[in-house]
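Example 4.3 (complexes with small molecules)
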Amino acid sequence: MAQVKVTAAVAGQERLAEGIYSMWIKEETIASQARPGQFVSLYSKDGARLLPRPISLCEIDREQGKIRLVYRIAGAGTEEFSHCQAGDSIEVMGPLGNGFPMDGLEGKRAFLVGGGIGIPPMLELAKELPCEVQAVLGYRDGTLFLEKEFQAAGSVYIATEDGSAGTKGNVLDAIRENGLKADIIFACGPTPMLKALKAYALEAGIPCYISLEERMACGIGACLACVCQSKETDSHSHVHNKRVCKDGPVFAAEEVEL
Ligand SMILES: Cc1cc2nc3c(=O)[nH]c(=O)nc-3n(C[C@H](O)[C@H](O)[C@H](O)COP(=O)(O)OP(=O)(O)OC[C@H]3O[C@@H](n4cnc5c(N)ncnc54)[C@H](O)[C@@H]3O)c2cc1C
Ligand code: FES
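Answer. The structure with flavin-adenine dinucleotide bound is encoded below.
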């Protein structure tokens, strides 16, 4: 699968919640090749910010040749992207990374667990998985985003830290409170959430795939800025490392140390 680096057109942008934006980019080659769990690198127009910013694919519209990115303003790069409007150009490279495994899941029940800004990458997965989808979405407070779009793909359970919507607590509290069961887990979110899900999956004896959003530099496997500790040695560097950008961002939970 060939990745491309192109100047693409912004097809539209809207603000979903305080500091959270949704941008559609018209880019047929990326849209035609991309799969859930992959990401793109977005380049700033400011020469002082050379490194691209990795953002996961939230939706892939292959018919119209568009990709959707949902991101939180974290610093100068994402702040700049939030000002893009339909018709503006943006430099983008992708699709990058491996994506979620989706084979052999017919007739199974899956938990799609997203925490905070780890929620967006689960949406395209929810739409494409060939099995029962139970989306468990964790937010800080009642400022929800994307939850209605998940409802079109399966059942949705919400957890908020302050209890202002859904279960008060974290995603595991929502799973327990609703008596949910699954045969497989897919997750993206903060490390403590991923750690807890890894332990839950181990205890339940079910596979768990997690998407890691480490800090990155090159985004294409060349610089080792994004390595995480792995159980097995890496075929590239022959040490206990995995490059999140190239070997991931999706890993079987037991493969990586969190
Ligand atoms: C594979 C991958 C997929 C991602 N997908 C999304 C997504 O779909 N939506 C989204 O909002 N964000 C996503 N991120 C995080 C996003 O890349 C960073 O928020 C962004 O690069 C920050 O750039 P900036 O210039 O705005 O901020 P910077 O000025 O670079 O950083 C601002 C602050 O954010 C912290 N930060 C930067 N990058 C990360 C990171 N990767 N993880 C945690 N903290 C970070 C910095 O330490 C700093 O404190 C993803 C990251 C990876 C690696
Ligand atoms: S960011 Fe350079 S190897 Fe992953």
